Inverse folding.
């Protein structure tokens, strides 16, 4: 009888021992890889950081000599990353008002602005600040650092994957900036959040962000149709990365409650963003007479950019004249639409041309006036004459122009969303301070309501609107801005001391 063959069985103890050995080797390799990666990153940080600081020595020395003998405190250079600082819009008013407040409070601080406006000189830029905004600066303590790679953050440079492209483009642009001048504090005032971790990692200095508008928001994600799943995945992935880069900021400021809510949801509650309402020149505007009779004009004060939706205003205005109240087209009841804004370049100029063609197509060109790049005194004069102030942008992050309407005594008619809805055109003492609208029909109706209010009601609403505008004065902005600047200066001292140990 043949013997039964049995295959040898592995011993359980040996298999378990082999598994433990493999796991130990894997764990060792993983930890070693992480440590080596960390050491490599620290090496890159040390080498690049030291190289950048050496490059800046001569430039920093020259800047610091400007205030030699004027203060006993150690000079501090604050770098403001604002590649379009010469655009002349609301974001630029924030930038230059912040610099003025910083100069007035801290004589030992030098403000450097990283600008891509290479078609202008530093003198021309600062002259425009005074002309456009009426802001006087100590030019000896302002330095314009010109950048040649601004095209990397231009929307035209990235016809596809624009959000990711512009964000990625900001990284070599900010590297160019800190290669030219290493600051002691870095503040992004234009919304390029991807610059924050780069500067924080390489230079180990305080970084801050003043956020006008989140690069991506939950509103944007909700508007993507389910059928466009690829775009939804792209935007959700981008939102995750945006959330990570935002966490690099030491201090975060937002310009409205709407922006704060979105930054909280994206960057996390640990950022503790403060609402610092943009400064509005309400002092000069409050001197305008709000009781005297005004011209029947609807005025829009906004840069000629696509998101401002001037086309919606033109269509609503045409509906007002043709459908709601044809008597307002001509004669004693005639109403005009005045569009005032800055033109940043050829693209904006082309957009103005397209809007003029639209006005002609709609048959309202005789009632529409375009005013481009008007100096501030001319803007004030226009505001003092107009009846209604209009804003049609969906999810306008704040709306400095709306506040200026209210301070000047205009009846605001604004889009029913974001800053104008949540912060600005809100009831005062349970009474309205203006009107909200969403589309052509509702804007046309709101225009008609504002233009046909009885005089006592008009005067009462104008008074309430002006009182509401006090909430957004330059003094309120200065106080809030300087509160955060003090925190950054304190952090800068601590980080400087830590680097030396």
């Amino acid at each position: 009888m043949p013997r039964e063959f049995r295959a040898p069985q592995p011993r359980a103890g040996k298999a378990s021992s082999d598994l433990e050995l493999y796991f130990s080797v894997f764990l060792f390799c993983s930890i070693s890889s992480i440590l080596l990666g960390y050491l490599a990153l620290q090496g890159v940080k040390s080498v690049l950081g030291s190289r950048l600081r050496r490059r800046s020595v001569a430039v920093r020395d020259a800047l610091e000599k400007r205030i030699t003998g004027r203060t006993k405190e150690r000079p501090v250079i604050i770098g403001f990353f604002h590649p379009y600082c010469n655009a002349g819009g609301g974001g630029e008013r924030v930038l230059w008002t912040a610099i003025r407040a910083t100069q007035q409070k801290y004589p030992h601080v030098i403000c450097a602005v990283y600008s891509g406006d290479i078609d202008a000189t530093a003198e021309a830029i600062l002259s425009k600040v005074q002309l456009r905004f009426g802001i006087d600066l100590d030019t000896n303590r302002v330095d314009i650092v010109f950048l040649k790679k601004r095209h990397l953050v231009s929307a035209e440079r990235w016809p596809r994957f624009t959000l990711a492209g512009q964000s990625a483009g900001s990284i070599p642009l900010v590297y160019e900036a800190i290669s030219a001048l290493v600051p002691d504090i870095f503040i992004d005032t234009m919304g390029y959040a991807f610059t924050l971790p780069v500067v924080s990692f390489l230079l180990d200095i305080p970084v801050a962000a003043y956020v006008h508008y989140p690069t991506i928001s939950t509103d944007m994600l909700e508007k993507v149709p389910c059928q466009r799943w690829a775009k939804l995945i792209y935007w959700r992935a981008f939102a995750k990365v945006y959330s990570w880069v935002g966490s690099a900021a030491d201090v975060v400021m937002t310009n409205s409650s709407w922006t704060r809510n979105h930054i909280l949801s994206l960057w996390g509650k640990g950022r503790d963003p403060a609402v610092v309402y943009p400064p509005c020149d309400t002092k000069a505007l409050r001197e305008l007479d709000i009781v005297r009779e005004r011209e029947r004009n609807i005025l829009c004060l906004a840069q000629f950019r696509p998101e401002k939706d001037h086309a919606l205003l033109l269509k609503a205005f045409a509906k007002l004249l043709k459908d709601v109240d044809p008597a307002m087209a001509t004669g004693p009841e005639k109403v005009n639409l005045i569009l005032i804004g800055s033109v940043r370049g050829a693209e904006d100029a082309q957009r103005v041309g397209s809007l003029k063609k639209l006005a002609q197509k709609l048959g309202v060109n005789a009632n529409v006036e375009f005013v481009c790049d008007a100096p501030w005194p001319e803007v004030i004069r226009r505001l003092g004459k107009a009846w209604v102030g209009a804003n049609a942008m969906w999810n306008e992050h704040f709306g400095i122009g709306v506040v200026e309407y209210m301070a000047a005594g205009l009846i605001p008619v604004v889009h029913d969303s974001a800053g104008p809805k949540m912060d600005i055109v809100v009831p005062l003492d349970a009474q309205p301070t203006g009107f909200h609208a969403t589309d052509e029909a509702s804007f046309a109706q709101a225009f008609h309501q504002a233009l046909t209010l009885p005089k006592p009601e008009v005067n009462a609403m104008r008074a309430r609107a002006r009182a509401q505008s006090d909430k957004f004065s330059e003094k309120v902005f200065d106080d809030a801005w300087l509160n955060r600047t003090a925190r950054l200066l304190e952090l800068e001292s601590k980080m400087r001391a830590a680097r030396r140990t």
Q: What stands out?
A: The longest strand covers residues 109-115.
